[in-house]
Structure formats: C-alpha cells, structure tokens
Amino acid sequence: MECASSDKNGVSNINMRKKQRNKDNKRTAILDFDVLDCPVCFEPLTIPIFQCENGHLACSSCCPKLSKMCHACDLPIGHIRCRLMESVLSSISIPCPNAKFGCFDIFSYELESTHEKECLFSQCSCPALDCVYTGSYRNKSSTIRMNIKKKIKIKVDSSKKLLFVVQCFREPYGVCVTVSCIAPSAPEIGKFSYHLSYTVDGHTMTYKSPDIKRVLEVSFQTPLENFLFIPHSS
C-alpha cells in the first residue's frame, strides 16, 4: 500500500511540474533551420517524415526517388514515421518572411513554403531580363516596361491588377509558347484559363489550359510542360 501511495505521489509531482512548465512553454530560442531540411533534397521537411532503423531521415518526396533505400546506410526507409521530428515541426511557429511588407501571419514551420507561394504580400519580379525591381503583384501594372522583347509580350488586366506574360522560346525544331501570370497562388486572385492557336500552311495548332500557372518570377528556360509547340515550316 505504501508503495502504491508513493507511486501516485510521484506521478502527481510529475504532473504538477508539467503543468507549471506548460504555463510558460513558449519561449524565444535560436535555431539553425538547416537541421529542419531534408538531408537528401535540402528542402524544408514536411509531414510525414520517414526514418530508417538507424534514425536517418528523408522527406516523403525523396523516399520513392531513393527506391525506399536510405541514402546514408542503405537500410529500408519510407515505412517508419519519425514522430518526434514531426512533433518538433508542428511545435515551431514562425512569422511570414513578408512581414516587413505587411503580412503578419504566423504559422507552423512546415507550412512556410506553401504560405510564401500564396501570400498576397510575396514580392514579384519584373519580367524584364535586365530589371531588378521587385514588389507586390498589385503594384506591377503601374511599373512594368511594356516593350521588352519580341520574345515576350505583356498584357495588363487593370481591373484585377494582374500581369499575364506570353513567352516564346526558339528551339532547333520549332518555337515553344507559354503563358504565365505574375502573382502569388492565393485563392483570392482566382483562376484563369487560356487558349493558344497558330495557323500555318492551312493547319491550325491549338493548346488549351484550364489554369494559368502563377509565378513570382518568370523563367527564361525553355519550358518542359504546358506550352504550345510550333514546328518550323518546311
């Protein structure tokens, strides 16, 4: 009986200490965020996180690329969740990197990349190759230089303050034409579809997309998907 009573008192003391700690469980700390990156792709870890039997980590995107074999020790990986690291990620709250531009959202670390893509205060880059201007997508329509190059055309939607970019990439066998919208992927902005067509030698080529890709910065690399290919006429 005395032993049982002692055990109960011990558990009670532990619970009291835990409650006392929980009263002030949010404290400022210095953290190297690199330790929260996947050691394979070096992107921020997101839940679920997997580990091998030796404790090496990999994100859910990398496990299939590794053929379910650990990059460090070749043991199987992709079946055992690392619940401890998942709890650490869920417990870390960070401010939006666009706080200085007016966003005051605070969210868990694992949601940083998603929030940054959707944040209305994310900084968008001018599509001119030699321009270093960045700013809110709302300010782009009044600052963009319209006559950039023959390879890129800009259309301004003044009602929504959006820029739509049409780019042409000349390749050995033809031209790739792609369309993008310079804006964050915020639901408030909405979705836009587009239809490209080109007629040559009596033949018409078309490309339709139900959703224009939204980007913070246009790419000057030939696209690998979502484009209209116009072959050179013989």
Task: Describe the fold and architecture.
With 234 residues, the chain is an alpha+beta fold. The chain has three domains: 33-91, 2-Layer Sandwich (Herpes Virus-1); 93-122, no CATH class; 124-231, no CATH class. The chain is built from five helices and 14 strands. Strands 8, 9, 10, 13 and 14 form a five-stranded mixed beta sheet that branches. A three-stranded antiparallel beta sheet has the order 2-1-3, covered by helices on one side. A two-stranded antiparallel sheet has the order 4-5. The chain is globular and about 75 Å long. The N and C termini lie far apart (97 Å). Mean pLDDT is 81; it is low at 141-149. GO terms for molecular function: ubiquitin protein ligase activity; zinc ion binding. Belongs to the SINA (Seven in absentia) family. Residues 1-15 have a biased composition (Polar residues).
- Regions with little confidence, pLDDT below 50 for 5+ residues: 141-149
Helix content: 10-25%
Number of domains: 3
Q: Count of DSSP helices?
A: 5
Gross morphology is: globular
Number of strands: 14
Structural class, by secondary structure, is alpha+beta
Sheet having the most strands: 5 strands, mixed
Q: What is the average of the pLDDT values?
A: 81
- Cα Rg: 26 Å
In oligomeric terms, what are we looking at?
single chain
Family: Belongs to the SINA (Seven in absentia) family.
EC number: 2.3.2.27
Protein name: RING-type E3 ubiquitin transferase
Domain SIAH-type: 91-149
